[in-house]
Amino acid sequence: ERGPVVLADPDPRWPAQFEREAEKIRGALGATALAVEHVGSTSVPGLTAKPIIDIALVVPDSADEAAYMPALEAAGYVLRIRSPQWEEHRMLKGSDPEVNLHVFSPGSAEVERMTRFRERLRADAADRERYAAEKRALAAREWEYVQDYADAKADLVEDILTRA
Predict the structure, then answer these.
(1) What percentage of the chain exceeds 90 in pLDDT?
(2) How many CB atoms lie within 10 A of CB 141?
(3) Cα-atom radius of gyration of the chain, to the nearest Å?
(4) Beta strand 53-58 pairing with 99-104
(5) 3-state secondary structure of 42
(6) Which range among 38-47, 78-87, 96-105, 147-156 shows the weakest confidence by mean pLDDT?
């Protein structure tokens, strides 16, 4: 994904947008949706964010795409990334609102990491502001790929996680 990193002011609609997407995902998958978590910056009240709802979905086996992909595609999601080497991660995109749907299996270290980071930022105003300031500074720079912006935040994320 190329282009500038555009951060939005905190939007009080983000939690409700997540809830609508979560209902859509649960409706499509039923019991196959073991967990549906709002993660990323839009899950932290008061935090500036790219206006994209990040969702972590846990299914029994994320490598078994036949068990969940057709239902998610029928619900309007489009597979964009398949990373079998990284916890059998799959990422689908949704629109209206824009969604990054991250699919993992039970016991995923990344899901635990994302939810622990979210909880730390929700609970700690100083870490939340440090993270917001870093995001603003990095977003002001030119990036060839949006992933490079995400990677540039990694050291601060790890520092915050050590205290979470």
Answers:
(1) 77
(2) 11
(3) 16
(4) parallel
(5) helix
(6) 147-156
Does the pLDDT of residue 134 top 80, yes or no?
yes
Q: Which residue has the higher pLDDT, 42 or 150?
A: 42
Number of Cβ atoms within 10 Å of the Cβ of 93: 16
**β-bridge mates for residue 74, sequence order:** none
**Side chain identity at 47, as an amino acid letter?**
L
Q: What's the token pair of residue 125?
A: 């105003």
H/E stretch holding 128? helix 125-139
| HEC secondary structure over 47-66 | CCECCCEEEEEECCCCCCHH
CA distance 114 to 119: 9
Among 38, 68, 71, residue whose Cα is nearest residue 52: 38
Amino acid, single-letter form, for residue 87:
E
Write out the two tokens for 63. 């490598």
pLDDT tens across 55-66, in order?
Answer: 999 999 999 999
In this model, does residue 118 exceed pLDDT 70? yes
The sign of the dihedral angle between the CA atoms of 59, 63, 64, 68 is positive
